[in-house]
Amino acid sequence: MLNAKPQADRPSLLLRGVRKTFADVVAVNGIDLEVTPGECFGLLGPNGAGKTTTIEICEGLTAPDSGDVELLGLNWRTNADELRQRIGLQLQETQFSEKMTVEETLRLFRSFFHRGITVEDSIKTAQLEEKRSARVGTLSGGQKQRLAMACALVGDPELLFLDEPTTGLDPQARRNLWDLLDRLKQEGRTIILTTHYMDEAERLCDRVAIMDHGRIIALDTPPRLIASVGGEHIVEFAATSRDNRDGAVDPALLTAIDGVESHRLTAGIHQLSVRELHTAVPKIFSVLASQGLHLDEFRTHSATLEDVFVSLTGRNLRDE
Ligand SMILES: Nc1ncnc2c1ncn2[C@@H]1O[C@H](COP(=O)(O)OP(=O)(O)OP(=O)(O)O)[C@@H](O)[C@H]1O
Ligand SMILES: [Mg+2]
């Protein structure tokens, strides 16, 4: 079946000083990146951060204005044919020929590669058995996405680029794709993916780079990035008072609480990163009570990569 042979001696992907400008938009603003063989690497960031441009530069679809790109020890200038045989890619949006069937589409893609898996195996991998004879134009969005994944895998790639592979998939199809990616990782393949789903990045990626405005603003393993927020838990609340309608709280009173690492106020919601909930929460309540404030909203969650983005930029990923 699938049979990848990563080269352990050199990075699967190496970017140095990569830049790309479209008219007056700097889409990628000097990126350095090294992805090791067998790694699952995630690119995260809000809309327009430059993830697709970066990945398309890696895939040889967009030429960078400057910088070096090396994949599997090769480059697009001198080794394009070999690279096309050894990588698999799923674009953010793929336009297939609507009149062709699923099976015909996969047969066509399989014909582009000297070696690979059988069309039958790729249909099975993407769980498209029931749709093998359906015309592509009749597939649902999620089914098209799975067909794109099958096309990315049919050449048995060592290095796989997936641009938002689970966007538009239902929860079950999403989990199935996670299981598939786990298997591809176990086979030693290198995977580079973009996603807006923080839980997905935490679950799948060995390391992630958080991008914003064309730059990498943080790069590490998900647990280390989350630890960098300073507290394991996030407490969010909104408060009002009878005499002071906006419910203002002096941030110094909150950050003075033992175990509270940081405070931020966004759109009326106070957000604290906290080491231990059971000791900090009662103290937060008593500070609010001492100020004559009562809670309108209160919630806690374990810190996530989303909180990392907020702590780095002061913005929510979803606000973009
Ligand atoms: N072909 C193009 N022509 C002009 N501008 C472009 C082009 N491609 C990308 N851009 C711009 O470059 C910036 C980065 O876009 P890119 O598609 O790389 O972002 P992204 O991080 O993939 O976003 P999303 O999460 O929405 O997919 C955006 O401002 C976008 O408008
Ligand atoms: Mg994109």
Structural features, described:
With 320 residues, this protein is α/β, with parallel strands linked by helices. It is 32% helix and 28% strand. The protein has 11 helices and 13 strands. The strands form 3 sheets. The protein has a 6-stranded mixed β-sheet, with helices on both faces. β11 (260-266) and β12 (269-274) form a beta hairpin. The model has no long low-confidence stretch (mean pLDDT 90). The structure holds adenosine-5'-triphosphate and magnesium ion. Keywords: ATP-binding, Cell membrane, Membrane, Nodulation, Nucleotide-binding, Translocase, Transport. It is found in: Cell membrane. It holds the Pfam family ABC_tran.
Q: Mean of the pLDDT scores?
A: 90
Fraction of residues in helix: 25-40%
Number of strands: 13
Largest sheet: 6 strands, mixed
Name the overall outline: elongated
Poorly predicted sequence stretches spanning 5 or more consecutive residues? none
Write the layout of secondary structure elements.
Layout: E1 13-22, E2 25-35, E3 40-44, H1 51-58, E4 66-71, H2 80-86, E5 87-90, H3 102-111, H4 119-125, H5 141-153, E6 159-163, H6 171-186, E7 190-194, H7 198-204, E8 207-212, E9 215-220, H8 222-227, E10 233-241, H9 251-255, E11 260-266, E12 269-274, H10 277-290, E13 293-302, H11 305-313
Parallel strand pairs: 3-7, 3-8, 5-6, 6-7
Antiparallel strand pairs: 1-2, 1-4, 8-9, 10-12, 10-13, 11-12
Bound molecules: adenosine-5'-triphosphate (ATP) and magnesium ion.
The site of adenosine-5'-triphosphate (ATP) has 12 residues, from β2 and α1.
